[in-house]
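User:
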Amino acid sequence: MIRYSLTCDNAHEFEGWFSESADFDRQVATGFLTCPVCHSAAVSKLLMAPSVSTARKKDERQTLAMDAMRQEALQKLKQAVAAVKANSEDVGTQFPEEARKIHYGEADARGIIGQATVDEAQALLEEGIEIAAIPVLPEDVN
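Assistant: Predicted structure:
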């Protein structure tokens, strides 16, 4: 797991945990990573000091980072994401079009998931179509 110190364009600082550097890039590109305070999608990494890790230090850091409350919260979030996915149709990159069809009554109402760019998501919201990002979670959350 990689921990990044992050900031949004409104200067709110927060942390994010990612399984690899590419996960951060992917979440920013798709608009899934937003500020927990103001929900801005303009998120960037802050400079961080490098950390040299020994096995003992790594175990201690992981214990501190994944204390019982965080682990329980991640597990509940993982369950919620799984429930949404299990009860939705994955329409892939056709998400914006399908969301519009459902909103305007051109397709049967149903739960859908898929991908949209930040611009596509913003356009849907401006049209009054309610959408929400589903977080990408690490696979090894117990």
